[in-house]
Amino acid sequence: MAEHDLTSRLAAQLDRHLVFPLLEFVQDRRLYPEAEVMEAKLRLLDGTNMVEYAMEIHRSLHGTEDVPGDMVARRKEVHARLKVLEAAAAPLVTFLRNPQLVQELRPDRQYNLHMLHQRFQARLKMDTMYSYGTTTNQILLFTMQIGRDHIEAMYDNAKFLFECGIYTHAAEYLYQYRALSTNSERSVSASWGILASEILNQNWDTALEELNRLKEIIDSKNFSSPLNQLQNRVWLMHWSLFIFFNHENGRNGIIDLFFQDRYLNAIQTNAHHLLRYLATAVVVNKRRRNMLRELIKVIQQEQHCYKDPITEFLECLYVNYDFDGAQKKLMDCEQVILNDPFLGRHTEAGNFITVPLRDEFLENARMFIFETYCRIHRRIDISILAEKLNMRYDEAELWIMNLVRSSKLDAKIDSVSGTLIMSTDHINVHEEIIEGLKKLNSRTYLLAKNIVEPAQLAQQAARGD
Amino acid sequence: MKTATKHPALARVSSGILSRPNSPDLAAAAAAPELQSLGPVGVKEQPLTMSSSRFWTQGDSDSEEEEEEELESEQGSDSDDNGGHDDGKRSKVQNRYLRTEDDDSDESDSGHRVVRSLRDKRNEEMKSIVDQMRNAMKINDWVSLQESFEKLNKHLEKVARVNESTEVPRMYIKALVLLEDFLAEALANKRKMSSSNSKAFNAMRQKLKKNNKQYEDQIQKCREHPESFEEDNADGKDADEDEEEDEDSDAEIEDPEKIAADSDEGEESGEDEPWVKKLTKKDKLMDKQLLKDPSEITWDIVDKKLKEIVASRGKKGTGRIERVEQLTFLTRVAKTPAQKLEILFHVISAQFDVNPSLLGHMPVNVWKKCVDNMLLVLDILQQYPNIVVDTTVEPDEKETQKGADYNGTIHVTGDLVAFLERLDSEFFKTLQCTDPYTKDYVLRLRDEPLFLVVAQNVQDYLERIGNLKAAAKVALRRVELVYYKPQEVYDAMRKLAEQTEDSGEDGDAEAGDEHQAVDDNRGPPPFVVIPEVVPRKPTFPDSGRVMMDGLMSLIYKYGDERTKARAMLCDIYHHAISDEFAVARDLLLMSHLQDGVQLMDISSQILFNRVMAQLGLCAFKAGLITEAHGCLTELYSTGRVKELLAQGVQQSRYHEKTPEQERLERRRQMPYHMHINLELLEATHLICAMLIEVPNMAASTYDKRRPMSKTFRRLLEVSERQTFVGPPENVRDHVMAATRALNKGDHQKAFSVISSLEIWKLLRNKEHVLEMLKLRIKEEALRTYLFSYSSCYESLSLGQLTTMFDLSESHVHGVVSKMMIQEELHASWDQPTSCIVFHSVDQTRLQGLLFQMADKLSVLVESNERAYEAKTGGTLEGVPPRRRGDGQDSSNFGKWQENFVSSQGRQGGNRSGYSGGRGGGSGQGGGYQRNDRGSQGSRGGYGGSRFQDGRGRNQSGSSSRGGDGIARMVSLNRAVRV
Question: How far apart are the CA of B718 and the nearest CA of chain A, in angstroms?
Answer without folding.
Answer: 36
